[in-house]
């Protein structure tokens, strides 16, 4: 055959473990070997040995023998056994895990294999010439699979488990499903086939062997009897048979509550007591019906079903403690009734319909309440008292009597008193033993017609508890006031009318100029007992009226004042006059405060005071034309120039070290010195004045500034040097400089 040669896979048995080759049904090469077989007729049959192409080997995991495990043998048809062929192995684990004998083709595993780490290895085998390494056949790829053994126990990855199921659940109620996993190969053998069983928790719960679902196994499991159960579940591989590996997990199962219990009072009769001095709303006592259920299943409501105390007591519920609170609804009196009975019911507001037939979910009890005697304050026989007394009655006059008594069994005597804050002026007094009220002095109805006081009563020897009652005392009127005019208003009478205001006028007329006011004494009598009278003076004023008897004026002033001016107008005129006078006075005061200047200059500009002469003078040599001495200050000769704005009584002495200014002193320094003297002179007034000096400096580079001493003409003078004298001479420099410039331009 021209087909290429193939490897053969040989089967062998080692330690009772069979390693096999998977044969592929495609024959590449036939190698005929005669095998003898005995047939039915005794003849020998011959069949040829075939060479098969393989693709996978198997090796058992976790082998711990002393020698390497023989995985299989490779053999090529071209191998004649003379050692000229060399077998080569490559791929996953080649040379480290798997090694090959290059002469025989035997493959061994040198390390222990774990299927859970790697389940198979892909290798490549090839036959080459030993001397040339020339491939004799194409490479052939095969797989070595690690054969699983049961070396991993089942594991519950999500344990421990927590589950809840309602109490009183039916048998078979699903609680929870638990799941275990096995790392062994589920496709090979029973190493990963798990079976569940319950190790702890019977007989209350059971588990399905195949699914791991836990179910209830007993009926009527009561949470109030037992609430929690610890269940242990086992998972075993190998189908649960002996020799299989197992794992366990814990499941904590809690029974949840349902309303399966009615409330129950611990006692059939409860005894309570209340003092008669308690006020409505105060607590009398508590009782509780216990319900072992939880949350809303254990809520209890209370109510009074019947009893002679239904009108005097009420029941509320404390939501925190679930207790019934008995409170006083109305005041009780020990002397009237000393005990009461109530029938109280406790019930569940939420009833589970599944357990409604287990009811009734309610209970009743009897509450007996006894009334205790208390030391109560005395009680007045009336809620209030009203008395009358005549005014001006003498001190000690009886007003009335109040009465109070002790309602307690002791019936102690009572002491009375009037609190002073209700009778500040102490018009009344009370007898402390019998409660008789009397006056302390005469009362005046016209000053106060009613007196509202309080009377307190307290037990003698008691706990100082007192009761108060209102006493209203009316002062009765007697005829003790003579009649008089209600008001002192004047009566106005027109001077030309015969009668006004029921006053009969005897005259025919009146004259306001002669008399405008009349005083008429009138006697007034009343009809009281005894009758009283008084004389009052009626003032009658004569007024001016018009033709319709309308009063125009009742005063004399209108004849004097200008007609037609109202009072408001007169006030406005007077205010204007006052304002004008104030303005005038202010103006005069300001004028007096204003000071006149001490040296008066004429209004015209001094530059305009130029006198023009037609004749030409002889200069300084000419002493007849005018006296030049008049241009100088005659007081300047002695070196001291007095102030001209005032006439000082004493000459201000020169400062120490100050001497007369010489001719060589600079003009600027001279002016500064004089200004300083003027500023520091204490005898000078605080306003500006003019200093007049008759001195002109000599020896300066500028020379004399006076035109009287100049022998040159204006055209010969040069004033440019004024620009260098500083800011004090700037104005002068501008005047003369402007003039020179104008002359030059002309």
UniProtKB/TrEMBL annotation:
Pfam families attached to this UniProt entry: CADH_Y-type_LIR (PF01049), Cadherin (PF00028)
GO cellular component: adherens junction; catenin complex
Its membrane topology: Single-pass type I membrane protein
Domain Cadherin as annotated: residue spans: 76-156, 157-265, 266-380, 381-485, 497-560
Sequence intervals crossing the membrane: 559-590
Protein task: Cadherins are calcium-dependent cell adhesion proteins.
Protein name: Cadherin 11, type 2, OB-cadherin (osteoblast)
